[in-house]
Amino acid sequence: MGLPENIVIVEDEVITQRYLQDIMLQHKVHVSGCFDNASDTLEALKRIECDMILMDINIKGPVDGIQLAKIIL
Q1: Residue 15 DSSP class
Q2: Residue 14 φ then ψ, to 5°
Q3: 6, 49 in Cβ contact below 8 A?
Q4: Which of 30, 53, 64, 73 is deepest in the core (most CB within 10 A)?
Q5: What is the pLDDT of residues 14-68, one digit of tens each?
Q6: 6: which strand partners?
Q7: What pLDDT sits at residue 43?
Q8: 3-class DSSP string for 35-61
Q9: Contact present, 47 and 8 (Cβ < 8 Å)
Q10: Of 70, 53, 69, 73, which is closest to residue 4 (Cα–Cα)?
Q11: If 0-12 CB within 10 Å is exposed, 13-18 middle and 19+ buried, where does residue 72 land?
């Protein structure tokens, strides 16, 4: 099994978000988007390609990463 082609990062810490982006770029994985809350993530997933989501548990807003994962599934 190879690496995914397109990923989305859901992380509210900008430094961590950039670090994850750098790692993905080193492995030639396209980052389709970076988001810090559930609302923006859900809206974006309607229009962008995504093979995998890297998601923090503690994100901005009333919906945490675990709840967001359940919504997405």
Answers
A1: H
A2: -60, -40
A3: yes
A4: 53
A5: 999 999 999 999 999 999 999 999 999 999 999 998 999 999 999 999 999 999 9
A6: 30
A7: 98
A8: ECEHHHHHHHHCCCCCCEEEECCCCEC
A9: no
A10: 53
A11: middle
